[in-house]
Recover the amino acids of this structure.
C-alpha cells in the first residue's frame, strides 16, 4: 500500500463566515478518519474549499491536520492556485507543514493550453519539493485532460499519482483501460465522484478519493476492501446501499451535502465561503433523515 | 453619453514575472487611450489579468490609472473574486482609488447556482459602494447567465450596465432583442468579443467593451461613431478591415495577442502570469507584421 492506493477521505475545512479556520472543528473531523484507518486523508481538496482560503489559512490547516494525524495517515494537500509561483509556494508550505503529497488541479481563469498545463505541473513538481497527484476535476477547473497528457505528466519526476473523475458506467471499462495504457506500469490511477468510484476500482483503479469518506469512512472502507479482495458482487451491493447518499450528492453537490451535515452531526458550525450558500433547511433535514435511515449517523 | 455607452478600451495590466505592476508601463498604455477620447477605460478586465493579481497590486493599478486619466475618462475596474467578501473589499478599494464603476464577473471554482450569483451581485452592489457592470464572460467564469437573470440583476440598486459576450452572427438580432426585452428601458447593453461587437451594436447594443481598443483605439472608435451615426454600411466596412486582427484573436486569444504586441510596439516588457505563456516568437512576428500591414503600428 502507498499513500496513493485504497481509500482517501476528503473532509471539509471548517471555517467561519470570514474564512477563519475552526481548528478544533478540523481536529474533530479528522479523528474518526484516523481511527477508521483510512489509507490517506485529502485536506484542502475541492471539498475542503481550498480555492476560497488564504495562503495563511491553508498553511495552518495543514499544520493542524499533521499534528492531528501524527504520522499515522498520509496527508494529501490541495495546492492548486491560478499562478504557478503561488502553487510552488503552497507546495513548499504544505511540505514544511507535514504533507505527504500535493494535489495539483489546473485551476484556470483564462483557459489554459495543454502546454501551459504541462509546464505548470513540471514547474510545481520541480520547485515545490512535494510529490504531486494530478488532480483532474473538469467541473471546477474547466480544463480537460486527455489520456495522452496524463501519460506525459505521469512521467515527470515528482508526479506520483492521478485522481481522475469517475467515468460513467458505459465508459468505465474503456476509460480505465485507456488511462492504464498511457501511464507507466504501476502508476496509481485513482478516481473521485463517489457514485462512480466502485466501478472505477473494479475496472482497475487503485484508489478512491472520496467525499463521503470524509464523514462516513467505514462504509466506504468496506467497499474498498471488498474490491481489493476481489469480492466484486459484495462491493457492488455495498455501493448500492449508498445510493440514497449518492442521490443527494447528485442533486445538491457532494460539497453542499457534507457541509450541511456537519453541524447536525455535532461537528461544529462550519460556514461555506460566500457566494456558496448552505443547503435550504428542508434539504438539510432530508439529508440528515437519509443518513440516519442508512445507519450512518 | 454615460460611462456605459460608446467605446470602452481594455488595456493589459503590465507586470513582471512576479506579478509586480509596471506603473510607467501602465501610464504609457493609458495615455493614447485618453488622447483618442475613448468613452471609458476598463482596467483590470480579463485582458488586464485581474484574477492573477493580489489585492494590493489591483488597488495600485487603479490608483495609477486614476492619476493618469485625471478625471477625463471614466474608469471601469474589474473587482471579481471567488469570495463575496473579497469582491466587496475590491469594490471599496477601487472606489477609493478613483474608479467610476466595478466590473463584476461571477468567478467560480465550485459551480454556482443562479441564486448564489444573484445574492453575490446584490451583496457587492449593496456593500461595495460602487456602481456595477454585470460582467458576463462564460469562457472564464463558466457561469451562464440567462436573459431572465440579467433582467433581475439589472433591477438591483447599484447595478448600472451589462457587458455580454457578442452573439454569433446568426443569433445576434434575436439575442440583443431578448436582452433588451428583459432589462429596464434605457439600461445600457454592451458587448465584448471584438469580432462580434459591430453587429451587436448595429442590433441595438450601446457599448463595445474592446480588447483591441486597449492598443488601437482609433479604428475601433471609428466603428463606434459610424454605428452611432447610423452609418451601418460604413461600420461594417471598417469592421471588415479589422478582420486580420480578429483572425489572430480567434486563433491565439485576444489577451495573448495584445500582450505579445506590447513589447514590439514599445510599451515595456510585460510578462503574462504563469501558467499563461507568451506567444511563440513566430506568431508574435506574424501578429506584428499583420498590424503593420493594417496601418495600426
Amino acid at each position: 500500500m502507498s499513500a496513493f492506493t485504497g481509500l482517501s477521505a476528503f473532509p471539509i475545512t471548517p471555517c467561519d463566515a470570514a474564512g477563519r479556520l475552526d481548528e478544533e472543528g478540523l481536529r474533530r473531523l479528522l479523528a474518526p478518519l484516523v481511527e477508521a484507518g483510512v489509507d490517506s486523508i485529502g485536506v484542502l481538496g475541492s471539498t475542503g474549499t481550498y480555492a476560497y482560503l488564504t495562503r495563511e489559512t491553508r498553511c495552518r490547516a495543514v499544520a493542524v491536520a499533521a499534528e492531528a494525524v501524527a504520522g499515522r495517515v498520509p496527508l494529501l494537500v490541495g495546492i492548486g492556485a491560478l499562478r504557478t509561483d503561488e502553487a510552488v509556494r503552497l507546495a513548499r508550505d504544505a511540505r514544511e507543514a507535514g504533507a505527504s503529497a500535493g494535489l495539483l488541479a489546473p485551476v484556470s481563469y483564462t483557459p489554459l493550453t495543454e502546454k501551459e498545463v504541462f509546464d505548470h505541473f513540471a514547474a510545481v513538481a520541480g520547485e515545490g519539493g512535494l510529490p504531486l497527484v494530478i488532480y483532474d476535476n473538469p467541473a471546477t477547473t474547466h480544463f480537460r485532460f486527455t489520456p495522452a497528457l496524463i501519460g506525459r505528466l505521469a512521467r515527470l519526476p515528482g508526479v506520483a499519482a492521478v485522481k481522475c473523475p469517475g467515468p460513467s458506467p458505459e465508459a468505465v471499462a474503456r476509460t480505465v483501460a485507456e488511462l492504464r495504457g498511457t501511464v507507466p506500469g504501476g502508476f496509481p490511477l485513482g478516481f473521485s465522484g463517489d457514485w462512480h468510484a466502485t466501478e472505477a476500482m473494479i475496472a482497475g483503479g487503485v484508489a478512491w478519493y472520496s467525499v463521503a469518506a470524509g464523514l462516513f469512512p467505514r462504509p466506504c472502507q468496506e467497499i474498498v476492501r471488498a474490491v481489493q479482495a476481489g469480492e466484486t458482487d459484495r462491493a457492488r451491493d455495498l455501493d448500492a446501499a449508498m445510493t440514497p447518499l449518492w442521490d443527494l450528492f447528485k442533486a445538491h453537490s457532494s460539497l453542499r451535502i457534507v457541509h450541511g451535515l456537519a453541524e447536525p452531526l455535532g461537528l461544529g458550525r462550519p460556514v461555506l465561503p460566500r457566494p456558496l450558500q448552505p443547503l435550504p433547511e428542508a434539504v438539510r433535514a432530508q439529508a440528515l433523515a437519509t443518513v440516519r435511515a442508512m445507519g450512518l449517523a
